[in-house]
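re: the backbone from monday

yeah here it is again, tokenized this time
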């Protein structure tokens, strides 16, 4: 046997040993230390047995079977094995995913919640449907149709805006034409002439306003001084008035006390006045009936009626 043949046989033997070792390690990793689970999806998206199972983005197992579910053919039953100790829980959700752009579909499982109960082996993992390529293509077609309609609408609006802009430019050209420029120049010349003529008057008025402001300031200062001079006497008068009011209030209080103390005397006086008034009324009535009582003390005898013989 030649040397080349010996080297080739050695390389082939090493390759066979390496392949056997790799297969053994993979089978040992996903056989004795794996735990089975299952989930269901309506769209598998090209998922095949042997696809990678990701838990939180980390490789955790392999898909063992992908087949229509016997109980409900509208769903796809997916069987999978994950590493023992993977913390799948009731909040974990299985859905289609991709390991990378160059590789095929994979099954991605979320980490769920730390407070959720752990799933026992063989349990059902809750699933979430992913959009299929047909659905994505349909949505893209709808977006494209809407975009076409929007483009057509935008073109119509742009044409209208273009027409408005053209009319605006025409109006500007009309306004800024030679005739209007001459009119504007005439107006500006008139304004310049007016300013040149009225400028000295405006200056004199400004000087008068300044002088008037100075006189107003002096007047305000004099008024402030006058108010300051008058303020103190007014304060004194107010203080004296307050004192007088207090004295009057005290006097009224004293009079009220005195009146209350002499209530019974006043009542007697009023009663005497009432009696005197009654006596005076009686005297008046008596004088009306017998006025001669003022002259005679005694009443004359009544005259006898003569008798007929």
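seq for it, each position gets an aa:
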């Amino acid at each position: 046997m030649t040397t080349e043949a010996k080297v080739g046989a050695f390389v082939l033997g090493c390759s066979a040993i390496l392949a056997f070792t790799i297969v053994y390690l993979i089978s040992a990793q996903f056989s004795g230390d794996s735990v089975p689970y299952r989930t269901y999806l309506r769209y598998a998206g090209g998922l095949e047995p042997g696809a990678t199972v990701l838990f939180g983005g980390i490789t955790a197992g392999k898909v063992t079977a992908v087949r229509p579910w016997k109980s409900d053919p509208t769903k796809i039953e997916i069987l999978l094995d994950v590493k023992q100790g993977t913390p799948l829980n009731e909040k974990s959700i299985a859905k289609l995913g991709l390991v990378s752009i160059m590789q095929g579909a994979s099954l991605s499982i979320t980490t769920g919640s730390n407070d959720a109960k752990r799933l026992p082996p063989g349990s059902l993992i809750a699933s979430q449907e992913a959009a299929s390529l047909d659905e994505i293509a349909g949505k893209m077609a709808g977006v494209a149709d809407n975009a076409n309609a929007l483009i057509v609408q935008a073109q119509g609006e742009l044409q209208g805006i273009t027409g408005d802009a053209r009319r605006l430019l025409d109006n500007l050209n009309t306004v800024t034409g030679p005739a209007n420029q001459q009119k504007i120049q005439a107006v500006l010349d008139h304004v310049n002439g007016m300013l040149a003529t009225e400028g000295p008057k405006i200056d004199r008025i400004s000087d008068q306003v300044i002088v008037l402001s100075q006189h107003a300031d002096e007047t305000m200062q004099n008024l402030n001084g006058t108010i300051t001079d008058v303020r103190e006497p007014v304060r004194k008068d107010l203080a004296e008035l307050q004192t007088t009011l207090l004295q009057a209030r005290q006097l009224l209080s004293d009079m009220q006390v005195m009146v209350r103390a002499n209530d019974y005397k006043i009542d007697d006086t009023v009663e005497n006045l009432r009696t005197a008034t009654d006596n005076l009324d009686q005297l008046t009535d008596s004088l009306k009936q017998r006025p001669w009582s003022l002259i005679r003390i005694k009443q004359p005898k009544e005259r006898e009626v003569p008798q007929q013989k």
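Residues 41 and 76 are 5 Å apart (CA to CA). The beta strands are 34-41, 52-55, 58-68, 76-83, 93-98, 105-109, 126-127.
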